[in-house]
UniProtKB/TrEMBL annotation:
Pathway: Metabolic intermediate biosynthesis; chorismate biosynthesis; chorismate from D-erythrose 4-phosphate and phosphoenolpyruvate: step 1/7. Pfam families: DAHP_synth_2 (PF01474). Mn(2+) binds at residues 73, 355, 397, 427. This is Phospho-2-dehydro-3-deoxyheptonate aldolase. It comes from Streptomyces cinnamoneus (Streptoverticillium cinnamoneum). GO terms for molecular function: 3-deoxy-7-phosphoheptulonate synthase activity. Its cofactor is Mn(2+); Co(2+); Cd(2+). Signal peptide: none annotated. The lineage of its organism: Bacteria, Bacillati, Actinomycetota, Actinomycetes, Kitasatosporales. InterPro entries: Aldolase_TIM, DAHP_synth_2.
Amino acid sequence: MTVNAEIHAGGNTWRSLPAAQQPEWPDQEALRDVIAELESYPPLVFAGECDQLRQRLGAVARGEAFLLQGGDCAEAFDAVGADQIRNKLKTLLQMGAVLTYAGSVPVVKVGRIAGQYSKPRSKPTETRDGVTLPTYRGDSVNGFAFTPEARTPDPQRLKRMYQASASTLNLVRAFTTGGYADLRQVHAWNQDFVKSSPSGQRYEQLAREIDRAMNFMNACGVDPEEFKTVEFYASHEALVLDYESALTRVDSRTGQLYDVSGHMVWIGERTRQLDGAHIEFASKIRNPIGVKLGPTTTADEALTLIERLDPDREPGRLTFITRMGAGKIREKLPALVEKVTASGAQVVWVCDPMHGNTFEAASGHKTRRFDDVLDEVKGFFEVHKGLGTHPGGIHVELTGDDVTECVGGGDEIFVDDLHQRYETACDPRLNRSQSLDLAFLVAEMYRDQ
Ligand SMILES: O=C[C@H](O)[C@H](O)COP(=O)(O)O
Ligand SMILES: C=C(OP(=O)(O)O)C(=O)O
Ligand SMILES: [Mn+2]
């Protein structure tokens, strides 16, 4: 074996360990063919970009920047269109502008985008009217329609995941470097929104202030081209390990392994077993890694995760994304933060205020209350303030479209409205107005910190 082949084999050590939440592909030979094809595809990201994001996250870990990570719960193949991608990006850029300006902090912008196609589920099957079928596991695995054909896992979908990720990332790169994301467009992102929404009007006020600040900087001689491009990164849950490891490559510069399916990947609450395949896989790659931590996480588990994933204690390598629920965060988070801090590790602490606050409305819709989301973020800030640690960022499920999936917000959505535009393939997302509301409130919390 050549040195590189040996190192690459290191990317497959997970295969001997139990892997939770993997699809039951009916045809193993078809799966092997797909993996071989994926292995021949070009990388979606460059390892150097992953390093750059790790450095940016290092600044977050040191308390010098804030992470904004957001996007769909589950991206869908039929939503890979210019309008949807632009709306999501625009929402994240607007939130980033609010946080940077009103929170006075550099914001590292990372989408749950261009790869967020695979879902862990709480049940393996779904029953409707006495018919039981495999549960929907994301467009990378099976179809959302409730038919035996759609719900049968099909490995060909992994190739569509790659293609959908590539198209999405291509447009995101075009927008963020080609002028659309130019800070001087700060008003243009809001044009369709300002009249119809209170948060849009509040944003417009802020955009005017940003304009004045930019005019001031121009007058001082700052080159306006400085504002032209935005650094934006792609992230997703590394769930289907056959896909992730097929896209894991040896970096020619360093000889190290990178998962080139996205800049950052995270391990979910349901797959973070210390002796499981997902943590093993993540331990072998150099990308920045996130791990979701739910309310049952013990401090010892968090410390072992650090040993496994960040043995060199490198700020920016490991992000803990806590998702405790509004009712539990104040009780559960302090012990984790205290013990991790005492161990000398410098992780990024991020609040996912979505996944601990999901409930089913009487109508049957899975939903979340904006006030619970906000309360969890508040609890997160309170805990970090109390301990003198840095509240490093937020991780949210959102979309740029005016959906009615979460209740509450300044432009209030009521439980009775949920059916109007409920479009998510999995979890309920904040719509654009709710996302902007959240950004303003988080900016205030950050400033008060
Ligand atoms: O983000 C995803 C969901 O939280 C996860 O798939 C669990 O959802 P479920 O309980 O509907 O399966
Ligand atoms: C499944 C998800 O989260 P968690 O692993 O925290 O439940 C998710 O982020 O969509
Ligand atoms: Mn989700």
